[in-house]
């Protein structure tokens, strides 16, 4: 995203009654105290999730699949059928042992077809005296609100990127017969966006009283056809240990990526 017009949250409120209008979207700002609770909750939950995934390769296998591309010397990270549930309302993971064969059953917390099917299967397994069912993990989720991947209105994609620091959302929309690509990305204390690769607009918090409690709502005009979420991803397997020594010291600076 290149340079473009910048808006401070306070100026947006003073000059535009909290809303800035563009051809493809409207941006509304509010600094309500309740936003602090939601921001803190989602941020904490996501970092706790990343920590749990680092500590448990078994749990991580339900969230993502990692492959090392030896030819290009890079890691590729793929999502699973359950990634979205980790991010939204959570899920329960059961260990199942039947006739000496071990398997797992995942039951999403979110109501819907996937939950109904998994819950019905769990009920059958629990009623079978020859089957051993153990609850391995029960996760509350991170509190994200994202479309279902089964939506018939638009396609939803998830990408996990170990090189990314802030979330990025890419939307493909149709407005009056014209196709548009909208990129929306968080950064420290603000949000930035561009349309069709054009100039980047930035809205940021410029008041110490607003830090950690400002909410930017971007209302997309037209019909959204596809949504892609690119999210930060942490895994110790990707880390490198760096040691820097100088002035005769054996180890002065020691850190990982």
UniProtKB/TrEMBL annotation:
Name of the molecule in the record: Uncharacterized protein
């Amino acid at each position: 995203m290149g340079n473009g017009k910048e808006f401070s949250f306070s100026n947006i409120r003073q000059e535009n009654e909290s809303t800035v209008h563009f051809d493809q979207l409207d941006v509304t700002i509010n600094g309500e105290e309740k936003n602090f609770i939601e921001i803190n909750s989602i941020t904490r939950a996501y970092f706790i999730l990343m920590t749990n995934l680092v500590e448990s390769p078994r749990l991580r296998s339900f969230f993502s699949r990692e492959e090392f591309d030896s030819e290009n010397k890079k890691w590729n990270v793929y999502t699973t059928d359950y990634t979205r549930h980790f991010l939204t309302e959570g899920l329960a993971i059961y260990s199942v042992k039947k006739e000496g064969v071990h398997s797992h059953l995942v039951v999403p917390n979110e109501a819907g077809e996937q939950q109904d099917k998994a819950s019905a299967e769990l009920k059958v397994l629990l009623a079978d005296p020859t089957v051993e069912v153990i609850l391995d993990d029960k996760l509350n989720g991170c509190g994200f609100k994202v479309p279902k991947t089964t939506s018939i209105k638009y396609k939803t994609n998830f990408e996990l990127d170990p090189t990314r620091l802030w979330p990025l959302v890419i939307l493909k929309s149709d407005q009056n017969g014209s196709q548009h690509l909208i990129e929306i990305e968080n950064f420290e204390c603000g949000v930035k966006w561009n349309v069709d690769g054009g100039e980047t607009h930035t809205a940021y918090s410029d008041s110490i009283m607003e830090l950690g409690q400002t909410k930017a709502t971007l209302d997309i005009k037209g019909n959204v056809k596809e949504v892609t979420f690119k999210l930060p991803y942490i895994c110790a397997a990707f880390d490198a240990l760096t040691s820097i020594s100088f002035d005769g010291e054996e180890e002065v600076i020691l850190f990982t990526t």
